[in-house]
Design a protein that fits this description.
The chain is built from 9 helices and 2 strands. By secondary structure, it is mainly α. It has a two-stranded antiparallel ribbon with strand order 1-2.
Length: about 220
């Protein structure tokens, strides 16, 4: 028999209780707006993390615009491509100004680890770098390949060509593993390049010897 689990409310901080009430209000607000129900939980999750990590230790005014911004981010994951609705049209549905949406997006991204990507038509997409499974798989793959290449260099003096390495990685990520849409190939190549460059720089031997041995 499964025993009931009782939460001692005295152990929950006042701020946590306030956040829970805010999330309930936000859930009702989004449901009233007839949004895609599949995105509501993830939108509330963003708001929970945002309110918990808020460095200003204050509940922002007009929280509803932050729920709208969270929903906007969730609805614009890279796999939503092509998502070519303008911010103006999106905001009209919720009765807010694009400037309010942009302000809320900026505030959320200041607190949370979201990556903003622009497609070739300059429409934005967002990835949570802390929780997105596909991004974590990509990052682990890149680390393994960079470590392998560096060991080959240090032990067998095989040169590392970072450009070729990036090209091989992005081909595997997009076309073989299909972690992200191929229409965003260029954007993810830039991300891969940044990650590879960062990982290579962690090898002090690489930094010291690259002028002599690296292509």
């Amino acid at each position: 028999m499964v025993e009931s689990i009782f939460i001692n409310q005295d152990l929950i901080q006042t701020k946590d209780l306030i956040i829970i009430d805010i999330l309930k209000d936000g859930k009702e607000f989004l449901e009233d707006k007839k949004v895609n129900h599949e995105f509501i939980i993830d939108s509330l999750s963003i708001m929970y993390q945002f309110l918990k990590r808020n460095k200003k230790q204050q509940i922002p005014h007009n929280l509803y615009k932050f729920f709208i911004a969270a929903y906007y981010m969730v609805s614009r994951h890279p796999w939503s491509f092509p998502a070519h609705e303008s911010k103006k049209n999106f905001c009209r549905k919720f009765g807010i100004e694009p400037s309010s949406l942009e302000y809320s997006l900026t505030r959320i991204r200041e607190e949370l680890n979201f990556k903003k990507i622009l497609d070739d038509k300059n429409y934005p997409y967002f990835i949570d770098l802390d929780t997105d499974i596909a991004f974590k798989l990509m990052k682990n793959l890149i680390k393994n390949e960079v470590d392998h290449s560096m060991m080959n260099f240090l032990l067998y003096h095989q040169p590392v060509n970072s450009q070729i390495l990036c090209e091989e990685l992005i081909t595997k990520i997009i076309f073989e593993m299909k972690l992200f849409p191929e229409e965003l190939f260029r954007q993810f190549y830039e991300i891969v390049f940044e990650l590879v460059d960062c990982l290579l720089s962690n090898y002090h031997e690489y930094v010291e010897l690259q002028r002599s041995f690296f292509i």
